[in-house]
Design brief:
The chain contains four helices and no strands. It is mainly alpha-helical.
């Protein structure tokens, strides 16, 4: 027991112990903060993958729309309620 008490009076041992406790629990870059940041990074990477896939799909749809005039006209009529000058447009709202 005296052997262990001798180490607790050593300045370097106490300083090292204090430093480890400070870095693990108290510092702004402690273990808990690092874990939260890692989890957030993983979530953002998943979102990045989702948006990159969605971007590719939208670009493919846009390319298809711009190459086919009939499809472009159908898209404009459905999405933006566009019509020709000699047509009447009726919007049916389901309740």
């Amino acid at each position: 027991m005296k052997k262990y008490l001798k180490y607790t009076k050593n300045f370097y041992f106490l300083f090292t112990l204090f430093f480890v406790i400070w870095m693990v629990f108290i510092d702004s870059n402690d273990i808990l903060t690092q874990y939260k940041l890692k989890a957030k990074l993983n979530e953002l990477e998943r979102q990045k993958e989702f948006y990159l896939e969605r971007k590719e799909k939208i670009q493919a749809d846009r390319k298809e729309l711009m190459s086919n005039n009939e499809l472009l006209e159908k898209f404009a009529r459905e999405r933006y309620l566009m019509k020709r000058k000699n047509e009447d447009l009726y919007v049916v709202v389901e309740e």
